[in-house]
Amino acid sequence: xxxxxxxxxxxxxxxxxxxxxxxxxxxxxxxxxxxxxxxxxxxxxxxxxxxxxxxxxxxxxxxxxxxxxxxxxxxxxxxxxxxxxxxxxxxxxxxxxxxxxxxxxxxxxxxxxxxxxxxxxxxxxxxxxxxxxxxxxxxxxxxxxxxxxxxxxxxxxxxxxxxxxxxxxxxxxxxxxxxxxxxxxxxxxxxxxxxxxxxxxxxxxxxxxxxxxxxxxxxxxxxxxxxxxxxxxxxxxxxxxxxxxxxxxxxxxxx
Length: 255
Hints:
Elements: H1 3-7, E1 11-14, H2 15-23, H3 25-33, H4 43-61, H5 66-83, H6 94-115, E2 123-126, E3 130-135, E4 138-142, E5 146-150, E6 155-161, H7 172-185, E7 190-197, E8 202-204, H8 210-233, H9 245-253
Parallel strand pairs: 1-4, 6-7
Antiparallel strand pairs: 2-5, 3-4, 5-6, 7-8
Helix pairs in contact: 2-3, 4-5, 4-6, 5-6
């Protein structure tokens, strides 16, 4: 495969797409390149997460009352369930129990955020898509849950909301990408990033050393180079250590 072939491959990727390729190139092909979805074993987690983000962020940061959560959480939950094509509830009461869990978690998360009133007075961006060039042929993007922007002190604080504290899901590279992108877009600003787990009332702020910064940047560039190789060769091999539905799904989709 020649360098000339690879030079013709340009892209605009989200961090989620990049991370999906790192996890498994075949899964990346189905989800990102082909836009194919398969039944998701953990659809509850996705629905709970999306519902919490929507209701908590909008109720608190748009100055909605706490009762707004109890009224709008069921509406948004129903919309997400309706959009999903394949859902397998464990029992007749599973759906209702999942909704009640969303409402309870959203209310508790909002209470925690209200306690952190120091963020008032800053400009707030909610789930704003941001992109910046990592290489001349790659624009990498992300969608931070919350950005608190203080132009007076030239600082930006990034919050990534988590329903629970799970070390597997606390992806430091994700926060690094957000910091890098916002640093490129806002020269001269101090960028900080943290995981916020309101249910446990914890804030986790990873340290990013210069060595870590260089390591993550190299990882992003290496992954993008691998994606370009796979695109040119039209070959996205599965990752042997990953067990999911995409390998079994491959037989019915690939001719």
